[in-house]
Design brief:
This protein has about 140 residues and is of the alpha+beta class. It contains 4 helices and 6 strands. It has helices at about 50-60, 100-105, 115-120, 125-140; strands spanning about 5-15, 20-25, 40, 65-80, 80-95, 110. Strands 1, 2, 3, 4, 5 and 6 form a 6-stranded mixed beta sheet that branches. The model has no long low-confidence stretch (mean pLDDT about 90).
Length: about 140
């Protein structure tokens, strides 16, 4: 029997003078230590959007107001009998994240324009999601 696990990936961004900036996050070196978005598990009974907001507040320290942008896109990865589905979102930060919370959960963080952010991401699915988010922001 196949078991499905749902996860979220959230790409925080700000738009300054019509130019989007993306928040890149790097976990401790003991973990993979690569730049990426906010990630987390969707628990039993969770709504996906609620999980996304919970991880943003807990791991990044952003608080409303802010706009969660559903990218209407998910990746699926099969590991034996396990299917991992990752739902992707953007989150427009209308203020700066809490530096104390960032320091507590991340080894490093930085804001970057699209070109720099895209190149910093090492996972192809993250790059694809960021490209999709960038296109959505520019189309708005």
């Amino acid at each position: 029997m196949q078991e499905a696990f749902h996860r979220i990936k959230v790409f925080p961004f700000q738009v300054k003078q019509r130019n989007p900036l993306y928040l890149l996050l790097r976990p401790d070196q003991e973990q993979e230590g690569i730049w990426g978005p906010v990630e987390g598990e969707v628990g039993f009974g969770d709504q996906i959007e609620q999980a996304a907001r919970r991880y943003l507040v807990r791991d990044v320290g952003v608080n409303p107001p802010g706009s969660l942008l559903d990218m209407s896109w998910a990746t699926r990865t099969q590991f034996g009998d396990e299917l991992i589905i990752e739902w992707c979102f953007g989150y427009e930060c209308h203020g700066d994240p809490d530096p104390n919370i960032l320091a507590k959960h991340w080894a490093d963080h930085r804001w970057a324009g699209f070109g720099e952010a895209y190149q910093a991401l090492e996972i192809q699915a993250d790059r694809t999601a960021m490209m999709r988010l960038h296109a959505m922001i520019n189309a708005a």
